[in-house]
Design brief:
The complex is a heterotrimer. Chain A is an alpha+beta fold. Chain A contains nine helices and 20 strands. In chain A, β1 and β2 form a beta hairpin. By secondary structure, chain C is mainly alpha-helical. In chain C, 70% of the residues lie in helices and 0% in strands.
Chain lengths: 378, 381, 298
C-alpha cells in the first residue's frame, strides 16, 4: 500500500481530485468482491482500471456510478461523499459495455434523454444534442433507431449520450469490448482525442492491457478484488510491484529464486534448477538472504547472439550459453526460445536489425543486465 | 382459495329447463349438419323415419330422462312385472337432449322425457312417433287439464308424467304480511329495491305479468304484451337480478326478500329451510309439464308402451310424488296420496288458482320476436 | 417424395412439374392442421355467416331468401345498447386487469427474490384451475349484502355496500378471472426487460419514477398490448360472470346470442348476425394482437 500513500501525497499537492475511494469493500453473499480499495482519480485524467475478468474492476466502477453501494468505506466525487446518493443524483455518466441504448427511441432521443430529464430549454437541448452527435460523427444518423446501427455506431451514440450531459466524470465499462480489432483501434484513437479535447475525467474499465497502456494517463491494476499497483503505463510495465503484474502486463520470463548475498544495488539469486542470476530487488522488497522471490525478465531486454569465442567477453551481469529450441519470425522481430543447461527455457524477443537469422539447434549466448531482472515478492 | 358455493343443489338440481351448458351441446349438434340452409330445410321436412320393427321384444329398454325421475326401486318393480331391463340415462336441459337426438346420438332410446314446449318443438321437427291409444291403458285417469293439453292435442305424441308451477318464494317472517300474488311487488316497490329476483326466462316473466294484468300467459296481442312490458318496467328497480338458480342462498340469508322460482326448486329449498314459503300467485301461474314420448327412432316401442302403461298405474305415479315432492297429472294417483300431500297447496294449488294457470306454448315467430325484443330491452335498460 | 433406393437414379423432373413437387410436401405436412382448422373454424364460421344472411332463419322453418335484414336489425338502439355494454364490460375489465396486473407482474419479475418467482406465479395461476362458474358463485358469497366483504367492512366499522348485481360486481368477477392471464403475459414481458436500460436511465439522471414511465413502460408496451388485447378478446364473449353477478341490467352480447339460439324466440338468423359482429370484434383484436403484441409473451 506504500504506492497509494505516495500517490496521495502527489495528488494533494498537485491537482484537484474528481473521484476518491477510501477503504472501500464490497461483499456479495459472503464473498468479498472488492477489498480495501484506495483510489484517487485526478481531474481531467484518463484513468484505467485493468485486470482479468472477475477481479472486481466492474464492481469498482459500479460503485462510482452508484449502482452498487459499498459494504464498507466511502466513495467521494469532487470531495462530496456519495453515501446514499442514488445514481441519478451523481455527476457521472456511464458508457455501458452493452451500450444499453433505448431501443424505443431514435438516436436523437437517446442522446437527448438526460437533458430532457433536467428540463433543459429546447434551444439549448437542440444545440447540445447536435454538438454531441457531431462530436461522435453521428449527426447524420439522428433519426435512426439503435437496431438500425452497427456496433461501432451504437458505441458512438452511447458515448454522445454520456458526454452531452457534461458530467464531471465519464465512466466507461469495457467500452470497446464488443468491437472488432480494426474498429477498436479506430475508436481508441477517437477516445483519446475526445478526452484531450473535452478535458473531462475518463475512468475506463478494461481487461485489455494494450488498450489500457495506450490510452491511459494512469492505470490501476486489480487482482482478486484488490488493487495491486497504480501508476503510469511505463511505471506499470517497467516497474511492476508484483509478479502478477509482471506476468499480466506484457510478456515476461518468470522464475522462482532464492536471494543470496547482495553486492551494491544487485543481489545474487539462485533458482531451484541451480541457475545463478544477478537481480535487482523491487523497491519495497527487503533483500534479506534466503528470501524466496520471483524474478521477472522481459524478453525484449535479453540480447541473443551466436555462441562464438568472441562473444564470451560480453560485459553483462547475466550471460548464459544455451541451445536455440524455437525461432518464430514475426517480421519486425523474432521470438526465440532458448534452453539453458540448467533446463530453464528463456523467451527472447529481438528486433530484426540484420538479415542474419539464428537457426534452431544452434548454440547461442543470451545476456542481460542485472537491473533488467527484477526480483519481486512471491 | 375462494369458498365454494354452499349448496350442491345450486348446481345440480338447477338446470331443469334451460341451462348455460345447453349452448355448447346445441352448437355441437349444429356443426354436424351439412350447411346452414340444408340444416333449416332438413329440420322442417317431416321425416318419416320408420320405427324399428318392435315385434321381437328386445328385453332391454333404454330411456333418456331427468335426473331422479327414475330410481332402482322403480326399475326393479318394472322388471319384476314385465321382465324388461331398463337402462336410464339422464340430461339436464331439454336443449341438450334435443341436440343429442338431432345429431343422431339418441337412436338407442325408446322413451324420452321432454318438457311441454319441447314436445311441441319435437313434433314440429318430426322426431316423435304418434301414440296408439289402443295400446295405452289408464289415460282416461289423467286430470281433465291434461286430457287435451295445448302443447300436444289429445296427447297424440306424449303422456304427461309430472307437472309443476312457477311462483314466489319468501320468508314470511321477513315479509310480515300475507302474500297472495304479484300485486305485493307493485304495492311495496319502495321496500323492495333490489330485493327480488325473477326467473331468467322471457315467457315466464312476461307471462306472469300478463296473467297479473288478467291476460293469457300465451297472449299474442302486441298491445297486451307491450302493456305487460311497461308494467314490468315499473318494478325494474326492485329486481336485483334475473336468475333461475343461484338465488337460494341469498334468499335464505336474508339478502333477498323474494324470488320467483319453479315449484320444484322452491320445494327442494324449503325442505332444507322450512322457514321459507312458496306460493302460487292467485292470478295464476305458468304450468309446466314433463312428459314421456316415444321417438321415431325407438328400437323397442313395445317395451316403450309397457313403460308408459306402467307409469300410468296410479301406485307408481303416487310413489313418484311422494319421493320427489312433485305434482302428478294422474287423478287416480292423486287419490292414492296421503291427505297431507293432497292438501299441500305448494304441490297442488287450489282450483281457483289452477283455473287461471296455463302452460306456456310456443307462439308465432313475429310474436316470439316481440317478446324477445321486450326482454332484451328489459334486461339492458 | 425423393426415392430412397440408391440403385434407382432419379429421372429428371420436367420443369413444369417442379412447382407441384415443391408444394406437395408442405401440403402433406400441413394437411392435418389445415383439416382441423377447416372443420372446426372455417366451416362453422361460414355456416354462421350464411345463417346470418337469411332474415328470420329458424330451425323448423323453410329458409327465406338471402338478405341483410339481420344486420339492419342490429342497429336498433336496444341491440346497440347490448353491444355497447359488452364492450364496456370488456374494456373496463381490461383496464382493471392492467392496473392491477402491472404492479403485480412488475413486483414478481423485478423485485421479488428470484427463487420465489415461480412459486408466486403458480400462486397467481392457481385460481385458474377452478371452474369459472364456481368462481362466480364464490363471488356471490363474498359480495352479497350479508357476504364476506360487508362483514369485513363492518368489522372495521365501515358501512356495508350493495355490491352484487351491479356493474362493479361484474368488473370484480371478470377481473379476478382474467387477472392471472394478464399477470402471466406482463411477467413474461417484464422479465425480458433489459435491466441495464434501467441502470442507463438512472445513470442519465432519471428517478425511479421517470425510469418507469420513460423506459419500463415503453419497453414493455408490446407485452401490455398483448395482455390487454388477450383479456379484451376473452371478455368480449364472457357469458357466466355478467350473467351471475351483473344483476337485472346485465344483458351481454353472449347472452343475447344464447337467447336467439336457445331461448323462446329461436331467431337463428339474428343470433348469427350478432355472432358475426362478435367474431368481427374478436378478429380485429387478434389482428391488433399479432401486429402490436409481444408474441413471445403470449
Amino acid at each position: 500500500m506504500s504506492q497509494t500513500v505516495i500517490r496521495r501525497d502527489v495528488a494533494e499537492t498537485d491537482t484537484m481530485l474528481d473521484v476518491e475511494m477510501r477503504k472501500v469493500f464490497k461483499v456479495y453473499n459472503g464473498e468479498t468482491a472488492v477489498r480495501n480499495i484506495d483510489l484517487d482519480i485526478r481531474q481531467g485524467e484518463f484513468f484505467s482500471i485493468l485486470g482479468p475478468s472477475g477481479c472486481g474492476k466492474t464492481t469498482t466502477l459500479r460503485m462510482i456510478a452508484g449502482f452498487e453501494e459499498p459494504t464498507g468505506g466511502e466513495v467521494l466525487i469532487r470531495g462530496q461523499s456519495m453515501a446514499n446518493v442514488p445514481p441519478y443524483k451523481r455527476p457521472v455518466n456511464t458508457v455501458f459495455q452493452s451500450y444499453a441504448l433505448f431501443g424505443h427511441m431514435s438516436v436523437w432521443d437517446n442522446v437527448a434523454f438526460g437533458l430532457r430529464l433536467k428540463d433543459c430549454p429546447k434551444s439549448e437541448l437542440q444545440q447540445r444534442v447536435g454538438e454531441a452527435l457531431q462530436l461522435v460523427k453521428m449527426d447524420s444518423f439522428a433519426r435512426r433507431f439503435p437496431a438500425q446501427l452497427s456496433g461501432g455506431q451504437q458505441q458512438r451514440v452511447a458515448l454522445a449520450r454520456a458526454l452531452v450531459n457534461r458530467p464531471t466524470v465519464v465512466l466507461l465499462d469495457e467500452p470497446l469490448g464488443a468491437l472488432d480489432l480494426k474498429l477498436r483501434k479506430e475508436m481508441q484513437l477517437e477516445l483519446t482525442s475526445l478526452h484531450r479535447d473535452l478535458g473531462v475525467t475518463f475512468v475506463m474499465v478494461t481487461h485489455d492491457q494494450e488498450e489500457a497502456l495506450s490510452l491511459s494517463d494512469r492505470i490501476a491494476v486489480m487482482n482478486i478484488g484488490k488493487i495491486e499497483q497504480i501508476g503510469t503505463p511505463s511505471e506499470i510495465y517497467e516497474q511492476p510491484c508484483t509478479a502478477f503484474i509482471a506476468d499480466f502486463i506484457g510478456d515476461t520470463n518468470l522464475m522462482q529464486a532464492e536471494l543470496q548475498t547482495s553486492q551494491g544495488e544487485t543481489v545474487e539469486a539462485i533458482t531451484p534448477s541451480g541457475l545463478r542470476l544477478w537481480v535487482k530487488p523491487q523497491a519495497s522488497l527487503q533483500a534479506d538472504p534466503a528470501r524466496e522471490v520471483r524474478v521477472s525478465i522481459r524478453p525484449e531486454k535479453i540480447r541473443i547472439g551466436e555462441a562464438t569465442a568472441a562473444s564470451q567477453s560480453v560485459d553483462q551481469a547475466n550471460c548464459y550459453e544455451g541451445t536455440l529450441k524455437h525461432a518464430m519470425y514475426l517480421g519486425t522481430h523474432t521470438h526465440y526460445q532458448v534452453e539453458l543447461p540448467s533446463g530453464d527455457m528463456i523467451t527472447v524477443f529481438q528486433t530484426n536489425r540484420s538479415s542474419e537469422q539464428l537457426q534452431p539447434g544452434m548454440p547461442v549466448q543470451i545476456y542481460w543486465s542485472a537491473s533488467d531482472s527484477l526480483a519481486l515478492p512471491v | 382459495m375462494p369458498p365454494t358455493p354452499s349448496r350442491n343443489s345450486n348446481l345440480s338440481s338447477a338446470s331443469r329447463r334451460r341451462f348455460l351448458q345447453a349452448a355448447t351441446a346445441a352448437a355441437t349438434g349444429v356443426l354436424l349438419s351439412n350447411c346452414a340452409r340444408a340444416l333449416l330445410e332438413n329440420a322442417s321436412a317431416d321425416k318419416s323415419g320408420a320405427a324399428a320393427s318392435a315385434t321381437n321384444a328386445n328385453q332391454t329398454l333404454r330411456i333418456y330422462t331427468w335426473a331422479n325421475y327414475t330410481d332402482d326401486q322403480l326399475l326393479g318393480r318394472f322388471k319384476d312385472k314385465t321382465g324388461i331391463q331398463v337402462i336410464a340415462d339422464t340430461y339436464d336441459s331439454n336443449e341438450t337432449m334435443l341436440a343429442k337426438m338431432q345429431a343422431g346420438g339418441g337412436k338407442d332410446y325408446s322413451i324420452i322425457y321432454p318438457s311441454d314446449y319441447m314436445v311441441q318443438q319435437m313434433v314440429g321437427l318430426g322426431l316423435l312417433a304418434p301414440l296408439d291409444p289402443a295400446k295405452l291403458t289408464g289415460i282416461d285417469q289423467l286430470m281433465d287439464r291434461w286430457q287435451n293439453p295445448a302443447y300436444d292435442k289429445n296427447n297424440a305424441h306424449s303422456i304427461p308424467a309430472v307437472w309443476g308451477t312457477t311462483g314466489l318464494v319468501f320468508n314470511p317472517e321477513v315479509i310480515q304480511t300475507e302474500i297472495k300474488g304479484w300485486d305485493y311487488i307493485w304495492d311495496n316497490q319502495a321496500d323492495l329495491t333490489r330485493q327480488i329476483t325473477l326467473i331468467n326466462d322471457v315467457r315466464e316473466v312476461l307471462g306472469a305479468t300478463l296473467q297479473y294484468l288478467g291476460y293469457s300467459i300465451n297472449s299474442t296481442d302486441p298491445a297486451e304484451i307491450k302493456q305487460a312490458y311497461e308494467k314490468l318496467l315499473e318494478i325494474k328497480p326492485t329486481v336485483a337480478s334475473f336468475v333461475t338458480n343461484g338465488w337460494e342462498d341469498q334468499l335464505a340469508g336474508g339478502d333477498l326478500k323474494m324470488s320467483m322460482a319453479y315449484s320444484q326448486d322452491a320445494i327442494a329449498l324449503i325442505a332444507e329451510k322450512p322457514e321459507l314459503q312458496y306460493i302460487v300467485p292467485e292470478t295464476g301461474s305458468s304450468l309446466w309439464t314433463d312428459t314421456m314420448v316415444i321417438p321415431k327412432t325407438a328400437p323397442n316401442s313395445e317395451a316403450a308402451y309397457a313403460w308408459l302403461n306402467f307409469m300410468l298405474e296410479p301406485e307408481n305415479s303416487a310413489r313418484l310424488v311422494e319421493r320427489l315432492k312433485i305434482s302428478t297429472p294422474n287423478a287416480a294417483a292423486f287419490d292414492k296420496l296421503p291427505p297431507k300431500l293432497q292438501q299441500n297447496e305448494q304441490l297442488f294449488p287450489p282450483k281457483s288458482v289452477l283455473a287461471n294457470s296455463e302452460g306456456i306454448v310456443p307462439v308465432k315467430e313475429e310474436i316470439s320476436n316481440l317478446y324477445d325484443q321486450y326482454w332484451t330491452r328489459l334486461t339492458s335498460s | 417424395m425423393t426415392t430412397i433406393s440408391p440403385n434407382l437414379a432419379e429421372p429428371p423432373v420436367p420443369s413444369w412439374q417442379r412447382p407441384f413437387k415443391k408444394l406437395l410436401q408442405p401440403t402433406i405436412l400441413l394437411a392435418p392442421a389445415g383439416l382441423w382448422l377447416l372443420l372446426l373454424l372455417v366451416f362453422p364460421t361460414l355456416l354462421i355467416l350464411e345463417l346470418s344472411l337469411i332474415p328470420g332463419a329458424r330451425l323448423g322453418n323453410p329458409p327465406g331468401p338471402y338478405g341483410l335484414g339481420n344486420y339492419i336489425e342490429l342497429f336498433k338502439p336496444v341491440y346497440l345498447q347490448v353491444i355497447w355494454r359488452s364492450l364496456y364490460f370488456a374494456l373496463g375489465t381490461t383496464i382493471v386487469c392492467l392496473l392491477l396486473g402491472f404492479p403485480v407482474a412488475y413486483w414478481i419479475a423485478l423485485k421479488a427474490p428470484s427463487r420465489w418467482r415461480n412459486l408466486l406465479l403458480v400462486g397467481f395461476i392457481l385460481p385458474l384451475w377452478t371452474s369459472s362458474l364456481l368462481r362466480a358463485y364464490a363471488w356471490i358469497t363474498i359480495l352479497r349484502s350479508s357476504g364476506l366483504l360487508n362483514s369485513m367492512l363492518g368489522f372495521f366499522g365501515l358501512p356495508g355496500q350493495d355490491w352484487l348485481n351491479r356493474a362493479p360486481a361484474v368488473f370484480i368477477g371478470m377481473s379476478y378471472s382474467y387477472l392471472p392471464y394478464m399477470v402471466l403475459i406482463l411477467y413474461a414481458s417484464l422479465e425480458k426487460l433489459d435491466r441495464r436500460l434501467l441502470e442507463a436511465a438512472a445513470d442519465l439522471g432519471a428517478t425511479p419514477q421517470q425510469s418507469f414511465w420513460r423506459v419500463t413502460v415503453p419497453q414493455t408496451l408490446p407485452g401490455i398490448a398483448a395482455g390487454g388485447l388477450l383479456v379484451l378478446i376473452a371478455t368480449l364473449g364472457e357469458f357466466a360472470v355478467p350473467e351471475l353477478l351483473g344483476g337485472a341490467s346485465s344483458m351481454t352480447v353472449s347472452r343475447l346470442i344464447y337467447n336467439q339460439f336457445l331461448g323462446a324466440t329461436r331467431n337463428w338468423g339474428l343470433g348469427s348476425s350478432i355472432s358475426m359482429i362478435l367474431i368481427l370484434g374478436v378478429s380485429i383484436s387478434i389482428a391488433l394482437l399479432l401486429k402490436y403484441g409481444d408474441r413471445d409473451a403470449i
